[in-house]
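Hey everyone, long-time lurker, first post.

I ran two proteins through the pipeline my lab uses and got sequence/structure pairs for each. Pasting them in order. The first:
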Amino acid sequence: SWDHAMTAAEGTASSVTTPLPQVDEEGRAYRDGAPRKRRRRYGLVLCGTCLCILIGIGLILWGIYVMRPREFGFLWSGPAPPSPSPSPSAESSPPPQNESSSVSPVGPPDGTTPDGGPSSEVPPSPPPAPCWSTGFEGVDNLLNPVACWRPSDGGPGGGDGSLPDLPTDPPPIEIPDLPELPDVPNITDLPELPNLPNITDLPELPDLPVINLPEVPTLPNITDLPELPDLPDLPNITDLPDLPDIPDPFPLPELPSIPEIPFLPPGLPTGVPIPQNLTSIAEWEALFQEWINSLRQDRPGSFLEGLEHEPFGPCVLEDGGSVEARAAHLLEAILESSPSGEYVDGVVTLWSDVVRVEMGVDRPERLSLAAFVDGVNALDARHKEVVDALPVLSRAMLIYPSEAFMSDELRANLTRGALGFSFWLDEFAETSPEATALLEEGDLEHVRYWGEVESLALHAAQHLMGHALRFETFTLSGRSGAEQAALGAQRVLAWIDRRLSPSLGLSSWGDDESIVSIVTNLANLVDVSPSTAVRKHAEMALDVILAELSAHSFRGVLPLNRGARTAGLGGFHQLSNTLWLLTGLGSCVLGDAAASSLAVALLRSSYHVAGVIGTAFERLHTGDVKDIDHGVAKVLSRHSVDASAEGAEEGHLRFGLEASVNDCIYWMSNGAQGTPEASECPHIVADVYGYAHGPLRRFRWLEPIAGIKVPTAPPLGSIEEILEQRGVQAPSAPSAALVTMLGDAPRRRLRAVSALRAAKEEEEATIVREVPLTVLAGASRLIAPLSRSGDRGAAHQYTYRTKHVMLSSLPDYKAGTLLVEHRQPWCAMLNPEDAAVVFTNQPPRSRESSTPFDWWARHAAMPRVAQHQNMLIAIYNPPVEASAFLPLMEKGLPPSITHAFFDKGAFDEYDVVVGRDGVTTWHCGRKGEAYVALYSYKPASFEEAGPFAGKELVAEDLRNVWIAQVEDSSTVRDYGQFKDYIRKGWVTVDILPPGPDRDGGLPWCLWQNKCIKGFPDNIDYWHLVKCVQWVPFVNPKPPCDRTLNTLGFLGCFLGCDLPDWRLCLIYCAVRSIDWSLPSVTFGEVKVEYVPWKRQALEFGWHEPFRVGRRYNAVRRELTRQRFERLETPFSNVPFGPDHETFELRVDRQTLYLDFNRSVKVVTN
């Protein structure tokens, strides 16, 4: 009623006007009708609460009513009620016969006498129950029955309310007599025990007889002996006559020779074939020691030997303004130089003679033929130093055979050397007596045929020399020259396709000598190769290398380049000659191989450098980059892949025992044969080509482990045979016609031929998959920090550059790996010509036993580096294995330091800036308009004596954190403002206690979680299974499940085809179980750098790299440290073998390369 009325009223009001929303005390909005509804709701709740309280009170009172007053005495206010007195007849009456008699009084229940008559006495009735007294009259009337008594009304005992008199003497209770217990016999009546005999009454033992030893006679005194007479002098033995031969009176028959027991490695199961050329343990140990020695870096020399700066100075030739003009000036300078070959810095090369011949010099007296003759003799003698001379020798055979300097003797020696040379691993087989004699000559076994640089030089020489001698037969391979040329062309194309198309990049990118050799061979192929396909692809590969070199170079130097003779201490290195020809900045040593070969190719118009490459470099060098603020540019690139499952997937490669020969050649070219993923590769390659001769001899110690015999590599068939077997129509003309056909064929045809040959090789070669090789891979995991040192791996390069300064690094590259060389983790360059460069290092050898290269370019353990624009953090935290492996490999403990190259004399200004916390110390320097600041967590001080006094900052301890920041006049006002920014920055470093860096495998996990109980007698196998096997709902979280692949083990064991089940068990256990040991670092390291007016950096040894707001760590985001093949302001090239196009675009200038279709487009 009332609610309906209110609702109707509210509806009428709302139809007219809409009330404004109101806000209650909790901040919620409501309208006018809401408070009324809320009040009604509160009222209903209050009524319900009161009703519940009343119901509870009623239940309590009802419970009190039904209970007896005695049990609730607290409600009784009067005296206790009387109890009925027992009747006298009840004492003598018999016990009740039924249940009712225990309640009723004595006598019949109907009031009659026992004989059935009526009784004149009324039986006493029980007293009434007492009344309840609660103090409330209404409640008392409800609770008390009618028949109850109150003290005020007089009780049943009298009107005064007193109780009836109780009997004073209660009736006695009779206790029945207990039966008597029987008498217990007396203990004293027990019989006495017999007396024991006395021990003293035993008979005495008889006396033992005394043994009287005879007395020892007294020895006479030595002094009492008579003196011996003097012996006469004996004649000289040489003067005695010769004795006649006495015949043997008892001649023994000659014993038959016992064959020597072949060597069987301990634990090797029977049934495995034993190598025939290893017959003793000593020989096998010698082979293994030879391999260990090959791993050691024996570098003779002392610390004071070698150059403190790079060997080359700045170029003094005229620039000319273009690549062609600089090439012309370089060639003219070489032509006008002394024919003795002694040039600006005393460098003597073969290419100076090549330049003179190309410039028209035809008289031998104007040539320096000494180096050329030495190269021919090295080729004929199969010497290892011939690899560097192969481009010139093959060029001379192909285009200079009729020149005046080529005498008949020189030409004959060159031809004989080429026909007897081994161009690849398949040419070390003993196919004939003549081949066997050749294999015994020379030292080509020391050449790394599978190396990235060596393989290109050998393939190019096979292609060019084969074409020059196309009608001859090569001794070791048995192939004709035309077949050699075609096979060499195929191998060159495969090499380019895998590395520079642009594909995976170069694993030797950080080595200047390697890049010089690669550029030399590619330029030579572009200039003189008879194959159109080879020339085209070599030209495009050369474009990719030059574009990348110009993008990463700074004033004629690559910041992270380290070669065998390059310590990076300022000045120009060997590759600076090529950079001068390309960019006009660097050095120009006369006779340099790469610069001379490029200049000759430009002279002969065989090659043209795309103009867009020079334009892109000018934009980066001058800071004229429109899409980047303040002229700052980033250049990101990537080279090669890691020897891991992820790297194999990225490069479309296989690893382990599943790898093919070509896959293994690539892994070995990266130096990954010591890693667990590629440790089987030397055996896989040697199983095809053999251990007996050649460079694979260094892996002969694998032969008894693998349990194989020395195979003889079958000679590879000719291209015509392969095409014929596959049903491909081949020309019937001579081999030269086939070479022409292959040279002019599109790339897909060459790929088809490559696939056919690879299929033929796989059919003829069966890879032996033995158990010991898998065990070897497991052992390699135990020493992973050392075994991965030779693997160059994937190198992601981050380069920040402006007009005046460059900061470049390899982020997160092989952190903690021991003994890495040819890789510089980071470097800041202000002016490399004047040694204004800054970088850090951790030397592996002591100062007294190091060369400058050891001291600055080799690393005891690689740091973990992260870079964001102009700021960089480098954490040095070597693993514990460094203390065990480095003394073994380096023959001594490494110094417990990290150090930085910071030449104070090379800077215009040098200052030490202390942070606002009063502790943080920065070393700051200015060179022109470029500024750099370097921080060390451990106190660092300059060396005061020695060759690097005032140039070397040394910080004690192996664990340290270095931070670098660079600026220039385009990002800050001046040097003073830069120092002020550095002072206001904040650095926090936490070096935590030691902890695990990598968990161990199954044995370590079982021991750590105490999974083996009752060893060795009562092993709890159920507890052991619970530690390793995952079972849904029953055992959902076993601690060691990650270390054992149970399904993989069962599948391997059931599908194993080895002859013995024990071999299968070992083989599958090694493949399916993680046997590695845990790796322990010296502890976690965490760094936070909050610079002034820059983004903050957060980094750690196990933590990702984060960049974000200065005082809000939550808003910091992960920053990628993995890049594509090449990322610049003018190009973006993806990484991987699936991407075979390269594009560089600056304004309207374009360079487009399509390796798949052999297309090159250049627009100016």
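...and the second, right after it:
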Amino acid sequence: MLRLPGAPCVLRVTRRGAATLVTRGLVRVVEPGSHSRPLAAVRLRNSQRALFWGGRDSGSAAGGSGSSSGSQGNGDGKNGKSDDPQNREPAAAASDSAASTANTGGAASSEDTAIVPVSSQGIRKDTGPPFEPRLLALPLSRRPLFPGQQQLLHVTNPDVLKELSRLQEKGPMQIVGAFVRRSEEGAADARGDGYGQQEGEDIVGDPMEALHLVGTRARILHMAQFGRFSVEGVQMLLVGIDLIRLEKVLKVGPPLQVEVSKVQHVFEDSDSLKAHINETMHTIREIMKINPQFREHASVVNQGLERLERGDAAAIAHFAASLTTATGEELMAVLEAEQPLEKLRVALHLLKKELELSQLQAKIASQIEQKVSSTQREYMLREQLKAIKKELGEDKSDGTDALLEKFIGRLENKTVPKEAQSAIDHEIEKFRGLAKESQEYQTTRNYLDWLTELPWGVYSSEALSLQRAKTVLDRDHYGLADVKERILELIAVGKLRGTVQGKIICFVGPPGVGKTSIGRSIAEALGREFHRFSVGGLYDVAEIKGHRRTYVGAMPGKVIQCLKKTQTSNPLVLIDEVDKIGRGHQGDPASALLELLDPSQNYSFLDHYLDVPVDCSRVLFICTANVTDTIPGPLLDRMEVIRLSGYDLKEKIHIAQGYLVPSAMRECGLWPKESKDKASSASEDASEAATSSASSTTSSAEEDREKEAASLLPLPAQAKDAKITSEALEVLIRSYCREAGVRNLEKHIEKICRKLARKVVEHSENEAKEAKEDEASESSKKPSELVLQVKDSNLSDFVGKPVFISDRLYEGQLPPGTVTGLAWTAMGGSVLYIEATALPRPEGKSASPTLGVTGQLGSVMKESSQLAMLVARRQAATRAPDRANFFQEHDLHLHCPEGAVPKDGPSAGVTMVTSLLSLCLGRPVRQDLAMTGEVSLNGKVLAVGGIKEKTIAARRAGCRALVFPQANRRDFDELPDYLREGLEVHFAAEYDDVFAVAFSEAGAETPKEASSA
């Protein structure tokens, strides 16, 4: 509906040409007849009137009403004023009568009304308010505003608010331009709140590039202030009028002032256009049938369809696009299309996508609804079935009875403690009355599952045979006499008592010495189930004690999991890396282990999840650690510590020849697989008949698989000759693998075997290639020889250059002030050189003795150096009075080579004293001498640890004369004979004993003399 601005009027033209001007009237616009020229004549029915925008033509025809502009109406003319002459105001009637008299000279027939052309160009089409090229531009963030559509816009910028207030003061008609930001701008400033779009604070860069050039001229229908979350602004309701194009930016602002031009559409009438219009309208109706949102807004959609009955292609395209959920860029493609047919094509494409989306949404909703209805129907039927069975006395519940029978059946042949049985009975009674849909149903079921799965009173039969245990331990590990002896003692006590009581043993030693692997051998020797878990880095107490059942996903701790997995109450549990246990805000796991590893408490270990006591006193716990320094004292006190020192050269060669080399050769396919029956014959002879039978069956099955694999991949004959000589192994150990364990040695042997395997395969492929060439040329060549023997001479071809050239930093006689010491590390023993030097002190400098130390020494070694300085000064004053002032006349400095390696400990005391005395006296010490021991202020030599590791390090460095504290004689006597053989060992109680050996004139003794010593 339309209204003229200022003095709204309606032009009534009779058939005789008389015109009547009616004010404040609203009428409905009717399409022109098919015989009329477009916009040339409009035929009205009965008393309906037509309203046209006033312009130069219509103004002259309306009795000089002027070319004023109007605004869009608000419906179909029903604004509270009737078009009936009786209801019009007197002024309107008078004006109507005057206009009629002026134009026709008499009254007009009301039933004979019609509109005729008012100019040669015809009556113009509705174009909205007068066009103003200069507008206030408002950026939109997401969706464009289409002509004829309404949209909310939030404005918070103060400058823009001032400009809007100024427009409001100028008159009731406020016209603005709405332009959509481009994608990169819209993504940065899209801040919609769910009720409408929000205008950006400003535009980054050139507005001509930041905004789409095609926008919408809009009228502000309503403005209201709002304030939310400390943000104040104006909420506006915009209605689109027509399309405009951004031509020039007058002011960047904000506010943004632009110059625009109207976008003109070329109207056409073709079959293709009509087909697109019909398809568009049909698609809209199809979406309305499917999409619930379209059905909710059916009234709005129907009103829009009524407004589009006149067939305006551009309006239909805009209306269709506005109904979709397309992105702003896709909707802008509709606005920016110049031809109506192109607009319809783009809009139809968006509608088709919306239709597919609606169909998919409807399909998903249907599936979900069908599933929900099916579930509800099943529930109702089950409830009815339960009621029927209950009435018939045949109620078997919904699987609960089967579960209860399974739980009760698990407890047969088990000796359940009273407290655990009471908890099980209580949970079973509660479980009977729970519905399957109850949240507590699954929790109670899991709890009963854990309680009934535990091996209450179930113990595995123990093999208390010393001979079998010794065979198994010697088969799997070489050396480790202390460990084997302790296990044999445990078995002997168990045989006398009838059972092996649970113990807590802790193996402490450097990496790679077999701490973890020996645990499995001990379990086999005892005939117990084996379970291992690591606590390295563990920081949650719940990993040991379990979670409370109130938590989602709660479960017992690792010990209860172990009992469930092994199905025995007396397994062997190996707790690995106990020295690396962590501590977090969830508690201290080391403290949680106290209850578990305390023999006086673990008979009633209480897990948080089970909440019933569990007897762990029959469990044999074995812990492993590299050092004991990081193990808490109370925890260490509960364990029996057995130290595993590093392997020496002889032991490593034996381990490599007996275990590592054969295993690596077989794994790499160089040697045939060894029969398991042959490998385990010794242990099978000592085991029981049942165990032997099961092992034999398993071994035969594995042997069959090995034979099958061998038949598929035949082993080359040359591969059987692969060998690593003992000389090569000795060089490999001395120059490449000096660590205490054999893990690095195993890696190097595997590396050698892989290279040998590659040589075998390459040789076989070359032979096959040469054979084909010989067949082609009818000649024969002598096959090349394949050498698969690794010797010390070609070892570097397999493992590269040696890592360690020599253990000795000095070859030959040591310079004065340099002494060889012995140190212990977590990786084993090593030699530690102590170097001392002196510089003449400048004149005038203080005469007090000074000593500087370097080499990354710890606090204990720094204190030892100060103490060594005092002892050396007293020794020098006694033994060389003429050199007594040496320490006052020189600046002394003491250094330990390999400064990148931290060093600490008290065992270098005698070595530092000897180094300072050697420098003071100018006498070198014996070149084959190495010493260790702590020295007191009065010259007493105190005991140290790591005697075996230090002895191994001395032999490796070629030091045949050793000085140990007198208190360590027992430790040295316990060493194997092959380690003591050929060594000249002196035990010192005072430093005078050390001095006598270090500065003796005799030099190194013969091996015979050393052995007698």
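Reply from user beta_strand_b:
Welcome! Quick read of the second one: The radius of gyration is 51 Å. The first helix runs from residue 56 to 61.
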